[in-house]
Amino acid sequence: MTKRVVTLAHYYTQPEIQQMADKVGDSLELSLYAREAEADIIVFAGVRFMAETAKILNPNATVILPDAGSTCSLVTQTDVTALKRWRDNHPDHVHVSYINSSAEHKALSDWIVTSRNVDDIIAHLYSEGKQVIFSPDRNMGAYLNYQYGYEMPLWSAVCEVHDKFNEVALNEALAAVKGNCHLIAHPESPLPVLKQAEYVGSTSGMLNWVKNYQGDVKDVIFVATEDGILYNMGLARPDLDLRQAPIYAGCQCNSCPYMKMNTVEAVKRAQQGIGLTIDYLTTAQMDAARLPIERMLDFSKRYSL
Ligand code: SF4
């Protein structure tokens, strides 16, 4: 019998990879799609923690990552033994972790969040009188502390792509524009950049901001996130002047090397069953990691996030 193959692609992959996919989206959209997918094989053109999340949510499917090297700096900068110690040092806190984390990391967490629902979930926990520790993204945690006046202890890892956005280069780029400019940014960016943004949100949130933009089309819109999404933004609003925020003077080419490992050849091979099969997680590990993810998905469903 022919195997049902479903291919998922993150917005940060190349346009030609997105064109090969059944579904293109951000982490949350792809996780939800993977959970419901009636597939024998899920090819996940993204990075390893995303493929692990798909496997955790749909354990009966064979999940294949096209290139075994597609990791994420938020994962590689987090030693799970040290993380456990840190968590154990905060026994009265709820441990909230960003979805950009390994399965082992998720299994140590009380809640998983994405950039789409992190604000609401943490606000909900504080409204219940809870104290929160946040991992692994230091920039996202610093932004939440700044924005809402929290004092969450933070783990210290960064997205090596977003962390490169730079206030000085940004100010120079903004000053070089003759007319009006806008800045929208992903919360994995450094706080000095986020403080200047008129919108801070998830990849999908930024895409929607661009789709719904009602301002002057002559204005320049700087986007502080991975360059892949500029393709989707350009498709949605070809009338706008969209530019990636700079990482240093003259450089507007900030892309994720791990996402770009998803080449056409690697994805085609994965669709034939060749790649990194996510078969190394035990049932106990998957069960432990699923709990905080399901908690997030239930919350998002309840509040239509
Ligand atoms: S863009 Fe950053 S957070 Fe996303 S996969 Fe690449 S390194 Fe990880």
Task: Explain how this protein is built.
- With 305 residues, the protein is an alpha/beta fold.
- Among the domains are: 5-72 and 259-281, 3-Layer(aba) Sandwich (Rossmann fold); 162-244, Rossmann fold (3-Layer(aba) Sandwich), CATH 3.40.50.10800.
- It is built from 14 helices and twelve strands.
- α10 links the parallel β8 and β9.
- Bound molecules: iron/sulfur cluster (SF4).
- The site of iron/sulfur cluster has 14 residues, from α4.
Class per helix and strand makeup: alpha/beta
The CATH homology group name of one domain: NadA-like
> How many DSSP-defined strands?
12
Bound molecules: iron/sulfur cluster
List the helices and strands and how they pair.
Blueprint: E1 5-10, H1 15-18, E2 23-25, H2 27-36, E3 41-45, H3 48-57, E4 62-65, H4 73-76, H5 80-88, E5 93-98, H6 103-107, E6 111-113, H7 118-127, E7 131-135, H8 138-148, H9 167-176, E8 181-185, H10 191-194, E9 199-200, H11 203-211, E10 220-224, H12 228-236, E11 241-244, H13 264-271, E12 276-277, H14 283-302
Helix pairs in contact: 2-3, 3-14, 11-12
The structure holds iron/sulfur cluster (SF4).
